[in-house]
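Need tokens for this chain, all 366 residues.
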Amino acid sequence: MSDSNDVDLDVYGWVLEHRTADVDALAAGTGLDVDEVRRSVARLRASHLLHVSPEEPSVAFAVAPDTAAEQLVAPLEAQIREQERTISGIREDLGRFLPHYLRRRSAGDALEVLANLEEVRGAIHRASLACTTEMLSSQPGGGSRIPEAMQEALGRDEAMLKRGIAIRTLYHHTARFNGPSQAYVAAASVLGARYRTAHELFGRLIAFDREIAFIPLNDGSHGAVVIREPSTVAYLCDIFEQTWDLASPFSAAVGQGLEEVAREIHETIIRLLAAGLKDEAIARRLGMSLRTARRHIADIMQELGAGSRFQAGVAAAARGLLEPDPSVPSAVRMPPAVEAPSAAEVVRVEAVAVEALPVAGVPAAG
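Here are the structure tokens for all 366 residues:
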């Protein structure tokens, strides 16, 4: 059987030239099967591409495609306009309640608790619209960021950057291994945003104009605390600045050098192990999954020849790994086993797209 698209084109062209929809004449003129011609005429009439005379059914006219498209699209556009009017009415109707909602707190309230993700997103959106100078954010976790959420954040950030707002964001180093994060940073950097990464971050934070800050609730929910008290907001921004100064400009993992990344991961984990942190806390501090953190810990303990965390701490202290002298190059301080990661370790650092632990509260700001 012929392709229906080709059949329709043949029938449309024949009717355009001969101005008739007589099935037998069409079949004879196009060399098509009568049933194929009949079905094609039905399709073309349904698409408004053929108009058959009501007085004389054998007389038909081919309709211009743009005219047919307008006839089909007109009712859809009418529906869209009606839906837009409905949406506008809903927003206007519910907007009357906003002053009452906002009056539940005075403008000078230092803290506001947002109990769910919808309230958090709405508050961040309003803060971004009101922002006039800068947005600072710390986004722990380096992988598995949801592309849809990143696209939404990119739209918000783009609007702010076009208004001249300065945007700076801190990620864990593990974001360098995540494709969506790399694409997001590349797109936003072109617009003027700046990004840096560190092995450790102090937590999740979004601050606007150094006047309002969002931090996650500590109850495992998706809520957040909005802080407006000037001294507290300034303190959080100072912590951001200190971390920013020590962080590295965002680049793909290969650009930094896989051996350097692996070495820094080991150095940081050794220090956190010696401080007594549990596996879960180490994973959270480094923005990697618990499984990946435990794999690094096992490698380090094997390299140090330690059977326990206590032995690992003793071995690390004996090798001068816990309190290094800043004046001594790291190549001198590091023992061969820790200084030079194995080829397998380098490949693993490159291959693992480290998934971020779920951090309750403030959604990603980009």
